[in-house]
Amino acid sequence: MTSEPVRRVRGGSPWEESFGFARAVAAGDRVLVGGTTAFRGSALYGEGDPYEQARVAFAGALEAIAEFGLGPESVVRTRMYLSHQRDVDEVGRAHKEIFGQVRPVTTLLVVEGFVDPRILVEVELEAYRGAVEQ
Fold first, then answer.
1. Any bridge partners for residue 106, and if so which?
2. Are 127 and 70 in contact (CB under 8 A)?
3. Of 11, 49, 71, 117, which has the maximum CB count within 10 A?
4. What pTM does this model have?
5. E-strand spans in 1-134?
6. pLDDT at 130
């Protein structure tokens, strides 16, 4: 286990300051990435396209763990929240392209909606900073 103190990384979400949260937090051997959408600053990427929103959201989450020297191979858990059941296959396709070789444990939920109605997908992930299993 690392003795590094808890470290927080901001990601530029328009809600980080007003809600008071960090994009990612490293504590011990774990790096947790909170809900990440396809927003980059005030621009939403992939509007109306669940596959593209999932790709952009996962890219943002992976950028957050890169701040700790980690990549997709360190991800042990993903969570995907969708506003429509019809988008399961497209979001699953994006997830497989990124994590198909890694195979983290995964949860996928359909939810009532998001803070901005244009958001179709929100993702979270957890990474492990210990040895990578071969």
1. 78
2. yes
3. 11
4. 0.89
5. 7-9, 24-27, 30-36, 39-40, 43-44, 75-82, 105-110, 121-128
6. 83
Residue 81 contacts residue 121 (beta carbons within 8 Å): yes
Taking the C-alpha atoms of residue 110 and residue 112, their distance in angstroms, rounded to an integer, is 7
State phi, psi for 100 to the nearest 5 degrees: -55, -35
Average confidence (pLDDT) per 10 residues, the chain, 134 residues: 73 71 90 94 94 98 95 98 98 98 97 95 96 47
Written as six digits, the tokens of 6 are: 């808890």
Alpha-carbon gap, residue 91 to 50, rounded angstroms: 6
d(CA 72, CA 56) in angstroms, rounded, equals 14
Q: CA-CA distance, 73 to 134, in Å (whole number)?
A: 10
The answer to whether residues 11 and 24 touch, using CB atoms and an 8 Å cutoff, is yes
Sign of CA dihedral 40, 41, 45, 48: positive
Classified as helix, coil or strand, 35 is: strand
